[in-house]
Amino acid sequence: MVAHTIRIVGIDPGLRRTGWGVIDCTGNRLAFVACGVIEPPAGNELAARLADLHAALARLIAEFAPDEAAVEETFVNSNASATLKLGQARGIALLAPAQAGLRVAEYAPNAIKKSVVGAGHADKRQIESMIRVLLPKAVGASADAADALAIAITHAHHRGAAALRLAATGTS
């Protein structure tokens, strides 16, 4: 039996920097495809930055043609305004792949860290180190891109369970 390759895009949403990473998953084998960071011009007003983010994500999805998408859930911090703005960027990160017809899974930050590093409270350096081990061709990935690759890897590990959760809630 030949294993089918699934292409996954991971998105680490942010208003200033949105990391993205694309991997191929064939059975248990993971392969690096591409990664990077989207940085909308900081001087633009919020609506323009969100529009830039959407356009860039739509281009990436068209270029790399992923089969599935995964996005990090927002963690709430003490600054309500910053959390709200992050939520708006996250909304774009959910919208762009959904508009392309992709199923979008969501993962909590601690679940991503636990899946990739083995500890739910790992720091960014530990994530970057594990990304270099798991995807050696992802040389030079920035912290935001490494986070996005970690999100994609988490989805590769949990995609069966994520599909069951989506089916149980009646969403697609």
Span between N and C termini?
28 Å
Radius of gyration: 15 Å
What general outline do the C-alpha atoms trace? globular
**Helical stretch count?**
5
Instruction: Count all strands and give the number.
Output: 5
Structural class based on helices, strands and sheet pairing? alpha/beta
Q: Segments where pLDDT lies below 50 for 5+ residues?
A: none
How do the strands line up in the largest sheet?
3-2-1-4-5
3D architecture notes:
Helix content is 49%, strand content 22%. It is of the alpha/beta class. The model has no long low-confidence stretch (mean pLDDT 89). Strands 3-2-1-4-5 form a five-stranded mixed beta sheet. The protein is built from five helices and five strands; from the N terminus they run βββαβαβααα. A hairpin with a 5-residue loop joins strand 1 (5-12) and strand 2 (18-26).
Question: What's a quick, concise take on this entry?
Answer:
The protein has 172 residues and is an alpha/beta fold.
